[in-house]
Specification:
The complex is a heterodimer of chains A (312) and B (587). Chain A has 312 residues and is α+β, with helices and mostly antiparallel strands. Helices cover 19% and strands 23% of the residues of chain A. In chain A, strands 1-2-3-4-5-6-9-10-11 form a nine-stranded mixed β-barrel. Chain A has a two-stranded antiparallel sheet with strand order 7-8. In chain A, β10 and β11 form a beta hairpin. The N terminus of chain A is likely disordered. Chain B has 587 residues and is of the alpha+beta class. Chain B is 25% helix and 23% strand. Chain B contains 16 helices and 23 strands. In chain B, strands 1-2-3-4-5-6-9-10-11 form a nine-stranded mixed barrel. Chain B has a seven-stranded mixed β-sheet with strand order 12-13-14-15-16-17-18. A five-stranded mixed β-sheet of chain B has the order 19-20-21-22-23, with no helix packed on it. In chain B, a hairpin with a 5-residue loop joins β13 and β14. The N terminus of chain B is likely disordered. The chains are: A alpha+beta (312), B alpha+beta (587). At the A-B interface, α1, β10 and β11 of A face α1, β5, β9, β10 and β11 of B.
Chain lengths: 312, 587
């Protein structure tokens, strides 16, 4: 009886050991298969997809910033020392207070407000296009700046630090590898039986009802995560609130699902962490509306208007 | 066993990793609080008066903002009013999110939110249900439905109360639709809100903000608000500035040396290259439209008559002319107003659908003398029966009976159970029925009915959500009487603990089920317009000059309708204040 128990225990133990592996591998294959098939276009194995082929959304086009936030800090040059909203530390505050537009101009540093840490907040337009299959090009008309988002991890930064630095980008999200939806794709209204309205607008109703609507054909989700290094120090804001070359700058770039009125929006979340000038990570998100053409894209040199006077 | 555990864990991890790329949905579950790295001076300390920058507002919103007096927040009924949805996430806030899943299928039914600011609760329905009909109540958080776009959760919210885009008096109307996009990057939650308000915005207002995951929690989840009289002012004062008299309008621009044209807002000011002198942007065609029908309040179909449960024993019948209130119970049925001509069969069918078996109409109450309220008197009366076997009794103020007699309404369609004092009460279906007669409101024949236990007010045409009040000066109506009557309704209503929301419900003469906040916003409007016209009258302005000055500009997009145009409202007030003869009917 005891031997039998022991024997059975070994069998059970072996089953416990082997079973999960077999089940897990089978499940993993089952779950991963559609994605793997999709990444290969459903056909035979081929060369790895390029960044352009893997794009879950189409970010190309000309996008205009619509300045609904930080209007008075973005549409004008704020007074010297105005660091409102920005979590500067003592060094950052001191540097902002000592900023001089004239000194920047004299020193050829007019583009410090148009560097990677501040360019997205400049009112302006971004023209986005694929420079090649592994490089997304962002041209900013404000300050005539160009950023290259490199999807090739092997790409090396230039020897010199630049205003825009070296940006390494990866696609993230569930739609990656399936390609952007074709232009003019009809809106999918989704399925499911709609529940009857609940009088009064509240109530719980329809527990276990139809699954949430998916609009995957409009926007499959997915975004770019960009980490930029090798940049020159610059300004988070036009009035000389600084970021240093030690900063870490991460961005998430989303194309939002098309708004019901037909507007398309680009949302850029920027996180700047700078041990020299900031006391905590600095978060901003900036919104751009797709324009029908690049007719209004008008590059201008790096130029910062004089700061507004300091008032009580 | 350790080896088994390790292998099992490895196997589970393998499954999770494999599944991760296929999962389209992100979890937002957790406790989050705001990061205020944009517009911090506006979002935490609060905006400065006269700052309309960054807003694609229209002329009406600007006019409203110019009239704004920050003391409005001290009005009793406003003190505890929460921010509405488009402002809620902009201001200081923390919130908790959890998923509600079906216990058997684990399908996501809804995403629930508790917001620490103003202790609001929000449900985002994920089960595909459409938005409620037009007559459903509005709330501060509105009615939300969500759908996934890959890893972006897109939420559409309607049925939001009137509120503000800025705490300094940039209005947001109750015709608002807000689309949100939620995105998550690790412990960072990014929320984009796009507000469409055809009353006050020329194009959608986009904003985005970030929230961080609170890993250590926080206890600041309750919001105690008790309103008090802070200053010895008149209880029903509505602080505001008359047109051109707000001394603070230029202060913001001057203080910050900003161009005045820029801080006045407008779509053109939001784009790169804007400078003072840039002409106003032409509205973009369709900028405020395009919503799918199931994402908008569903209108009633032509001829559709519906009974909607309001609260307690009281229901509202919509679609048969003016709104009808119906109280049902063991004693029988009491009906407030009887609808438009030709709709009585539908009304009786709707009543039959909510009445207890075998119960008959015992009482009818007329709140006014307008035909769309009382044309069904005769058929409904004859369909009912008093306990003595007579046709159902019609109750109204004696002025109503007299005016209907003057108007040639046949005997069977006129009220005979009249009262001449300023109110009447009686018990029915186990609750006190309290009838209040405003001395002078829309006419001098109005009645307001309060179902005291059900906690529902049937306001008649003293209050409506679809149009300006109709003030029939010829028949004893007056603007001051209308204001008094609205204030009296405010005395009857008590909000629930959800801060200025729900509690006592108000059935308006026309429009959606309302509560105290809706009434107070309407009262404010009537007072402000009255004050503007009174000032113009004091300055000897003629009616034409008053009309040309557009004293209702900030409310016309919301309340001026074909049935009750702004010109009629202005003329009624003007005539009431001056005693001038009518140039035309105000109705």
């Amino acid at each position: 009886m005891i031997r039998m128990w022991c024997s059975n225990r070994r069998i059970v133990g072996r089953a416990l050991l082997v079973g999960p592996v077999v089940v897990a591998i089978a499940l993993a294959v089952l779950v991963a298969a559609p994605g793997l098939m999709a990444q290969r276009g459903g056909g035979p194995a081929g060369p790895p997809q390029t960044a352009r082929q893997r794009a879950p959304v189409d970010l190309t086009g000309t996008w205009v910033s619509v300045v609904t936030e930080d209007w008075r800090w973005r549409m004008a040059t704020p007074p010297v020392g105005d660091v409102a909203s920005i979590p500067v530390n003592g060094a950052g505050r001191a540097a902002a207070k000592s900023w001089s537009l004239a000194a920047d101009t004299a020193g050829g540093n007019q583009c410090k407000a148009f560097g990677v840490g501040g360019i997205v907040r400049q009112p302006g337009r971004i023209r986005i296009s694929w420079q090649d299959d592994q490089t997304l090009k962002l041209e900013f008309d404000a300050g005539t700046q160009t950023r290259l988002l490199q999807f090739d991890a092997a790409a090396t930064p230039s020897a010199e630090k630049t205003w825009q630095g070296h940006s390494f980008a990866v696609w993230e999200g569930p739609g990656v590898g399936r390609g952007a939806p074709p232009v003019g794709d009809p809106r999918v209204t989704g399925g499911g039986v709609l529940a009857p309205a609940v009088p009064g607008g509240g109530g719980r109703g329809l527990r276990g009802g139809p699954p949430p609507r998916q609009q995957a054909q409009i926007n499959r989700g997915g975004h770019i995560r960009v980490v930029t290094t090798n940049f020159r120090e610059g300004y988070l804001r036009k009035n000389g609130v600084p970021y240093s070359e030690e900063a870490s700058i991460t961005e998430y770039i989303h194309r939002l699902p098309t708004h019901p009125n037909g507007d398309d929006w680009l949302n850029v979340v920027t996180i700047v962490e700078d041990p020299r000038y900031l006391s905590q990570p600095f978060y901003t998100s900036t919104n751009f509306r797709l324009e029908p053409s690049d007719a209004s894209f008008a590059p201008t040199p790096c130029a910062t208007p004089p700061p507004l006077p300091v008032k009580d | 066993v350790n080896r088994i555990s390790r292998v099992s864990m490895f196997s589970v991890a393998l499954v999770l990793l494999a599944g991760a790329s296929a999962s389209a949905q992100v979890s937002f579950v957790g406790e989050w609080n705001g990061r205020y790295h944009e517009d911090q001076p506006d979002r935490i300390p609060g905006e400065e008066p006269g700052d309309f920058s960054g807003l694609a507002i229209n002329e009406a919103a600007r006019f409203f903002g110019d009239s704004w007096d920050v003391a409005r927040h001290s009005v009793l009924e406003h003190q505890c009013a929460p921010y509405t949805l488009p402002y809620m996430f902009f201001g200081p806030n923390q919130f908790r999110i959890w998923d509600e899943k079906h216990p058997d299928t684990q399908e996501l039914i809804a995403i629930q939110m508790h917001l620490g600011t103003y202790q609001q609760h929000r449900t985002i329905w994920m089960d595909g249900r459409p938005h409620p009909p037009e007559y459903a109540p509005h709330t501060f958080m509105g009615f939300s439905t969500g759908e996934w776009n890959g890893d972006i959760l897109t939420i559409t919210t309607t049925h939001i109360k009137a509120g503000y885009f800025r705490r300094t008096g940039i209005p947001a109307s109750d015709r608002l639709t807000v689309v949100e996009h939620w995105m998550r990057h690790g412990n960072l939650f990014s929320q984009v809100t796009i507000a469409t308000d055809p009353v006050y915005l020329t194009e959608p207002y986009i904003r985005s903000q970030e929230f961080g995951l609170m890993e250590r929690g926080n206890t600041n989840w309750l919001y105690n608000c008790e309103y008090v009289m802070e200053l010895p002012t008149e209880k029903n004062d509505v602080p505001h500035y008359l047109p051109g008299r707000n001394p603070w309008i230029g202060e913001f621009a001057a203080k910050h040396a900003m161009p005045h044209e820029g801080v006045r807002g407008g779509a053109e000011t939001l784009l790169p290259g804007w400078t003072p002198g840039t002409p106003p942007a032409a509205p973009r065609a369709g900028a405020n439209g395009g919503f799918r029908p199931e994402h908008q309040p569903a209108p009633l179909a032509a001829g559709e008559v519906k009974a909607v449960h309001v609260q307690g024993n009281v229901h509202m019948i919509v679609g048969a002319g003016a709104n009808i209130a119906v109280q049902v119970g063991d004693d029988g049925i009491l009906v407030v107003d009887t609808g438009a001509a030709g709709m009585s069969d539908e009304v009786l069918a709707a009543i039959a659908g909510i009445a207890p078996p075998g119960k008959e109409i015992r009482w009818l109450v007329n709140t006014t003398i307008q035909p769309d309220h009382i044309a069904g008197n005769e058929p409904l009366s004859q369909a009912g029966r008093t306990v003595n076997g007579n046709i159902a009794a019609i109750v109204a103020h004696e002025h109503a009976a007299a005016r209907l007699l003057d108007a040639g309404v046949p005997d069977a369609g006129r009220p005979y159970n009249t009262y001449f004092e300023n109110g009447r009460d009686f018990p029915f279906n186990g609750e006190p029925i309290v009838i209040y007669h405003p001395e002078s409101a829309s006419t001098d024949a109005e009645s307001v009915v309060f179902f005291r236990r059900s906690d529902v007010v049937a306001a008649g045409d003293v209050f409506r959500t679809d149009a300006y009040p109709v003030i029939d000066v010829e028949r004893g109506g007056s603007v001051q009487g209308t204001i008094d009557a609205l204030n009296r309704i405010l005395d009857m209503t008590v909000p629930s603990k959800m801060l200025q929301e729900a509690g006592t419900y108000v059935i308006p003469g026309h429009g959606r089920i309302s509560d105290e906040h809706d009434v107070v916003m309407y009262r404010d409007m009537v007072v402000i317009v009255r004050d503007r016209i009174r000032d113009m009258v004091d300055r000897q302005m003629t009616l034409d000059q008053v009309n040309a000055a557009r004293p209702t500009l900030d409310y016309d997009g919301r309340y001026s309708t074909e049935a009750s145009p702004a010109a009629a409202f202005i003329e009624a007030i003007y005539r009431d204040l001056t005693g001038a003869a009518a140039t035309g009917s105000s109705r």
